[in-house]
Structures are given as structure tokens and as C-alpha cells.
Amino acid sequence: MDANLGDRLPTVGDVDHLPVTGAILRESMRLYPPAWAIGRRAVADLEADGFPIPSGSVVVASPWLLHHDPRWWPEPSDFRLDRFTEEAVAARPRHAYLPFGGGPRMCIGEGFALLEATLLLATIARRWRFELDPTQQVALQPVVTLRPRFGMRMRAIRR
Fold first, then answer.
1. Of the given ranges (5-19, 56-70, 117-131), which has the lowest mean pLDDT?
2. I need a surface site. Which of 52, 80, 89, 129 has the fewest CB within 10 A?
3. Domain containing 47: what range?
4. pTM of the predicted model, to two decimals?
5. Within this chain, do residues 12 and 84 fall inside the same structural domain, yes or no?
């Protein structure tokens, strides 16, 4: 990032030149997808893997489970940026990663959210790094969105 930006703030034109920043965001959302479960109502009778799903049934897909499936994510609990190289993305099934949902009802704000998050992370990381407060208890709270149960106290350290 420093090599791409120098001392200036990032702009929209820089986003494609910040692949590590983008990989950090994507891997973070793989491990902790904001929408950890997505419900849909079946509009017709169907079958999935031999199981009948009657019309009107609520079907729940879990990005959390999918994003931790070792078929698509070796060592699924590890934070690994190499999962988001062009080659790695092309080798995975399209819907093995869906922090914004998938299909016709996927979040229309995905592109803007990733653009905004990349610029924000690159801007902050130019001057700061963060360390988890050693007294912080880390636990998840899966409500409508996935969030830290006890907050996430961090120490900001100037670079």
C-alpha cells in the first residue's frame, strides 16, 4: 500500500492497485460475514440433495458455514490473503463466497461497500495499526448481523 500511495490519500482510481487491502477485506468477511444467515421462502416445490422442500418453506443459507467449509477453504479458520488472488477466486465455485448474498436478491450495494471499505482501510492503515486489547474477551453474537458480543477494544498505534 505504501508503495502505491506514498504520502497521499487513496482515491477511487487507486482501488485496483490495492490488491492486499482488498484481500484483507474479503478474507475478513469470509471469516466473519456480516450476514451470517440468509433466509428465503421457496416459491415452488423443489428438491435439494434429495430432500424435498415444499413451496412456502423457509430455507436458510449460512454464509458462515459456507465460508468455513474445508472443501472450498483449506484450513478454514486461518486468515490467509492468498485465498483472494485471481487464480484462487477462479478455481472456486462462484457461490462458495457470498458475504453480500447471491443470485437475484444479492445486495445491490456490494460494489459501493467494497469501494468505500477499501478506501477507508487504506486511509486508516497509512497512519495507524491496531492491536487487540489483551484484556478483551472475544466472542461472537450472531443476531441479525454477526457482531462481537463484548465489543472489540483495540489499541491504535501510530505507524
1. 5-19
2. 52
3. 2-126
4. 0.88
5. yes
Give me the CATH number covering residue 50. 1.10.630.10
- How far is the C-alpha of 139 from the C-alpha of 63, rounded, in Å? 18
Rounded Cα distance between 5 and 28, Å, is: 23
Backbone φ and ψ for 14, nearest 5 degrees, come out as -90, -20
**What whole-number distance in Å separates Cα of residue 66 and Cα of residue 123?**
31
Q: For the chain, how many structural domains are there in total? A: 2
Statement: residue 81 has pLDDT above 90: yes
The model's confidence at residue 49, banded by pLDDT at 50, 70 and 90, is: very high
Residue with the three cell numbers 462462484:
94
Residues 6+ apart with CB under 8 A from 57: 41, 42
Q: Say yes or no: 24 and 102 in one domain.
A: yes
Kindly report the backbone phi and psi dihedral angles of residue 95, in degrees, each rounded to the nearest multiple of 5, phi listed first: -100, 25
DSSP sequence for 54-96: -TT-EEEE-HHHHHT-TTTSSSTTS--GGGGSHHHHHHS-GGG
Q: Please state, in angstroms and rounded to a whole number, the distance separating the CA atoms of residues 14 and 21.
A: 11
Within this chain, do residues 114 and 94 fall inside the same structural domain, yes or no? Answer: yes
